[in-house]
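Fig. S4 source data, part A: sequence.
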Amino acid sequence: MSLVYLNGQYMPPEEAKISPMDRGFLFGDGIYEVVPAYHGKMLGFDAHVARMRDGLAAIEIELDYSGDTWREICDTLISKNPGPNQGIYLHVSRGTDSKRNHAYPQGVKPTVFAFCFELPGEPTNDESTATSYQVSLEQDRRWQRCNIKSTALLGNVMHYQTGARAGNKETILFNAKDEITEASSSNVFIVKDGIISTPPLDNQILPGITRWLILQIVHSHSELKIQERVISKEELLNADEVWITSATKEVGPVVKVDEKVIGEGKPGPMWQRVQTLFTAHKFDY
């Protein structure tokens, strides 16, 4: 039977109870992470935990969980849930208060919740079997602290729904200057004339772990050129390749943005090269 983790205990999901006065429920006041694991081996675990700590510090939630504690929780959930490929969802809310008040309460113990969900399998670098993406494109209307991986994801959900309603799997976003920020649940890369580019990190963009891994891996191969720079909406639409990247997608090739076909309308050669390198080296960092 599948088990979840809640505040120091493992239990069946139907036994996990959280108060409706929990600030995660009332305000989306919390931080989360998703760590992928393939055949029991977690990808980017230390980087995910470091980003969670940064997020908790940014919203002033104090939690005394060490990296070893998080690793033990993840390893236990992997062992107690079926399936070779799993995502481990980690969630920390500020906790339960006696009243609803916008200000941070004092002396409230954080709520810690975690569970596993099945991943379909490791992404492939085979063009014929790879999952390719058709996406929507619209102006970014989320809050101005997107670098914090907050559980308050309504803005992202609404953008994602735009794509889903159009039959697409994602929505890529641009700001008021027509500069690409990210997608509703992914980071964005483009390829033009053999050069890989991704927007630089700032408050508009989540510092994705997969994005970071790609930068590390590509920088270690001198024959490849990669840069962090501002990317315009026009550049995206006229790119040779477009990718969306995340813990579960890895390097996801985009073949169509709204009605605009990207490149030849299929995963490109640079995607195949980088996904191959990512598969070979993703556990080295």
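Fig. S4 source data, part B ends here. The helical segments are 23-27, 45-58, 67-80, 154-165, 209-219, 233-237, 269-281.
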